[in-house]
Structure formats: structure tokens, C-alpha cells
Amino acid sequence: MTLSLHAAQSIIAGALDAARQRAAKPLAVVVLDAGGHPVAFAREDGASLFRFDIARAKAMGAIGMGDSTRVLAERAKGNPIFFQSVTAVVGGDVAFSPGGVLVRHAGAIVGAIGISGDTGDCDEECALAGLAAAGFSTESEQ
Amino acid sequence: MTLSLHAAQSIIAGALDAARQRAAKPLAVVVLDAGGHPVAFAREDGASLFRFDIARAKAMGAIGMGDSTRVLAERAKGNPIFFQSVTAVVGGDVAFSPGGVLVRHAGAIVGAIGISGDTGDCDEECALAGLAAAGFSTESEQ
Amino acid sequence: MTLSLHAAQSIIAGALDAARQRAAKPLAVVVLDAGGHPVAFAREDGASLFRFDIARAKAMGAIGMGDSTRVLAERAKGNPIFFQSVTAVVGGDVAFSPGGVLVRHAGAIVGAIGISGDTGDCDEECALAGLAAAGFSTESEQ
Amino acid sequence: MTLSLHAAQSIIAGALDAARQRAAKPLAVVVLDAGGHPVAFAREDGASLFRFDIARAKAMGAIGMGDSTRVLAERAKGNPIFFQSVTAVVGGDVAFSPGGVLVRHAGAIVGAIGISGDTGDCDEECALAGLAAAGFSTESEQ
Which Pfam families does this UniProt record tie to the protein (chains A, B, C, D) (predicted)? Predict the structure, then answer.
């Protein structure tokens, strides 16, 4: 399965709905395909300028390493030297904070969502809400 | 006036409507704010992977030089050495083909739209249609 | 369909067999997946050092633009300013010479092969021979 | 002695055999020559996208610093500031985790193997198994 633009836009709409219900700070939300290339993106009014790059780095990090950035951030705490070198190896294509979540379909990774703007925990909640709203499973991330 | 996410999404929706009416090849469409930062983005199913980067470079080039990429591409033909050096100077943040168009409001530049996927002429037509559909003037580009 | 390591290695073996039959200069051959990420690579003894980067840029250019580098090189002749800017936009991820060929399965692009070392024509012949040897269609490139 | 493509492919085949015997996670394996340039590469099905870059950075780091990445990672723990600066100095061409091992012949460094995908310890075991299978000594790494 290829992640369609329609599915990506549904994920983003669901994530932003969840953000407004929580009165989250303004967010940037990006959805990448399985190769790490952008499918859709939205930056809410008032979100600061780095949010696109950070959101993309979260999503790309999740795809590139095969885990959510929550898991990666935990692992990085125990091995900071290696994960700092990984950041340089991949040219900054990873950000170690929750909010980067894999999109799976029938067990396969079909893409990732990345959110930045509020706390990592809030960013991730909105990401998971977006996946659920668009009909994607979020169990494998737990 | 700051270009809102709502306005950016309306521009993209209008551009993609125009693309489907013309049976254009799959497009990537990006809208940047006045600082050149992404507000919204969509890549249609089947669009090749560089389309995001090229669309962004068209939009960024338009903002960066203060003219549509149609005008820039014409000027580049008459002075290729200078414009090649500009490409290097700005780290590839410009693509010399029609499809990058400034978004203006009350005379001020509030952002730009960039499209890639079909011919430059078709990309630009869809960009102008998106601006018109969202209620932005396109006269100043002519 | 995802391009497997087994398929990628079969393509490379077939391409190198063809190269030896033609007494081609030493080649570098890379196979990328649909997202442009390397699956397998081989550089023959005596191939010069840039061959990996050029082979990869041919394969990535084919995927990124959705056409073989033979077609892209022809188009670039008619619009050099634009294609020079594209080279910068994508950070050098394209090389305008034959030898980058899409790998298709059931109509979908599943990857690309890139070869560098001999003339562009010879590089492309070996690429097509590799695809044929591994059971992939090469018709859509003609 | 120059590391031949044949030798590099034997090392990779041996490493992947060892990986499958251990039921390791999907791996990426790269072999570089004495100048740090890729000779051969393979990414197993299911390995995540950064694995090529990380494997290459392990192998390049080993060649660049003249020690296995196990030794380098140990040294980095005791002097993190310096090794972080090295990471930046060499543009991300090093990853501080076991799995990057020098290939020696008659005492001379002729190349390096880098593996990423499982734990650093498992990656390194597979690298050493690949060297042994291809008839290279691994004693100097101990």
C-alpha cells in the first residue's frame, strides 16, 4: 500500500482537530511516505519557523530508524555519543523527542507523521489521534 | 496580512482542482509565507519524488528574487552565468521554470506558490487558478 | 511490490555479465528502492572513485524525475538553465547521462538502476541487460 | 593488496549468513576500500532507511581513525567533547557504535566493513564472521 494524498490529508486534519480540542500551541504537521518524502504538510497560524523542519526530522527519524521518536529518544538517553553521531550521519534528518510516529498498514511501514509545536507528549498525542481519525492502527507504537 | 493556513490550503485545493480539470500530470504544490517558510503542501499520488523540492525552489525563488519564475527564467536565458551563480549562492533555493508565483495582498507580497509535475506552463496555469480560486489577485504577475 | 535484495543482486549480476561480454570499462552499479535508498551496490576492480556517486545520481535522478536519464539528458539539452538549477535544488542527486533506468513492476516504479564507468550508451545497455536478466520489463523505457 | 569486488562480496555474503544464523534483525552491510570508497553494499529486506548511512559511517570511521568503532566508541565515552567535534569535522563520516571493523591483509589496512541493523554487538559479530568467512584475519581487532 502506498500512502495516498487523501490519507495524508485525513491524518493531518485529525491531528489538528485533536490539537484544537486540547488547546495545544500552534503545530506543524507533516506526513511522509515510506521513502521519507513529503506527501502533505500544514503549519498552523502562529507556529514558529523551525516547526516544519523539526516535524519533518521527527517523521524522517522514525522511518529511518524504524521506531517512534519516543522510543528513539529513550534509547538516545542511554547512548548519547552514538545518537549524536547518527544525527550528523543523516544530515540532521532526526529529532529525538516524541511526536514522530510510524504509519503502518497490514504490518508494513507505509509512512510516518511528525508533529512539532507543543511538548513532545502533546505532539505525539495529536499524531496518534490523527492516525486513529484516518483509520490507521496505532497499537504497534505502544 | 499574514498568509493563513486556511488561505494556503484554499490555494492548494484550487490549484489541484484546476490540475484535474486539465488532466495534468500528478503535481506537487507548496505555499510559502513571506519569509519563505512552508505553510502547506500537497503531493498528488504518482508525482515523482523531486517534485516537492522543485516546487519549493520555484516558490522560494519567486520570493527571493521578487518575481515569478516565468520572469526569472526569461532573464536567466539572457544572462545564464549570473543566474547560475545565483543558484549556487542561494544553495539551490531557486528553479528557473514557470510555476513559481507570488501571492500578493493589497500590493504587498504575503507569500508564494510553487508547482512542479507537468510542463512549466501548465504548472503556472494551475498556480494562477489556485490563487484566483482563493480570492487573490494575479494581475501583478502579468 | 518492494524491490528485494535478491532482485537487486540479480539485476547487478546481470548487468556485470553484460559488461564483461562487451569488454566494457570497469563499472559501478547501484540499485535503489522506490524511495531512492540503496538496496545493493557493486564497483568493479579498477573503476574510478566517483563512479559510485555518479551511478547513484543517475538512479536517483531517474526516480526523482520519473524518467530514464537518457530522456532527462535530452530534455536538459533544450532547457539547460532549468536543469542546472534542478541539479542544485536536489543537492547533486541527478546526473544527466544515459545509464539511469527505472525498475517497473506491474506498471509501478519499484526502484532504479544506475551505472557509471563506460560511455552513457554502454552504461545504459548494461542496465537494460541487467533488468532483462532479472526478469524485469524494459519496454516502458523505449 | 587492493580489496577486490570478489573479496568484498564474499565478506558481505559471510556476514549475512552469520546474521541469518543468529536471527539478527535485517542488516545493511557495506565494504569500503582503503580510501573509504564503497566497493559493495547490501541492505536486507526490512532494514530501515538509515542503515546504509550508519553502516557506511561505521566503516568510514574505522578507516578514518584507524581503529574499530568498538574501540572508538569506548574512547568517545571518556572524551565526548573531542569526539563530538570529530563528528562535525568529518561531516558525519563516523558513527560511534560497534560494527565498523578494519579489513587487514599482511598487516596493512585494505578496507573496512560496516554493519547496522541490530545491536552494535551483534552487528560487530556479523562483521567479524564475514571477514573470517572470506579468509581475512580478525585478530588485530582484539
Answer: HbpS-like
Domain-embedded: residue A114: yes
| List of chain B residues whose C-beta atoms are within 8 Å of the C-beta of residue C95 | none
Band of the pLDDT at D107, cuts 50, 70, 90?
Answer: confident
What's the CATH code of the domain at A29?
3.30.450.150
**D-chain residues near A107 (CB < 8 A):** none
Residue A26 domain boundaries: 5-137
Question: In this complex, is the C-beta atom of B43 within 8 Å of any C-beta atom belonging to chain A?
Answer: yes
C-alpha–C-alpha distance, residues C130 and C136, integer Å: 9
> Inter-chain contact B49–A43, Cβ cutoff 8 Å?
no
The grid cell for C104 is 517497473
Q: What is the pLDDT of residue B142?
A: 42
Pairing between strand B100-105 and A108-116? unpaired
Cell numbers placing B24:
495534468
Q: Touching check for A81 and chain D: CB below 8 Å?
A: yes
Query: At a CB cut-off of 8 Å and minimum separation 6, what does A16 contact?
Result: A27, A29, A42, A44, A126, A130
Q: What is the value of ipTM here, to two decimals?
A: 0.94
How many Cβ atoms from other residues are within 10 Å of residue B21's Cβ?
10
Contact at 8 Å (CB) between A115 and A14?
A: no
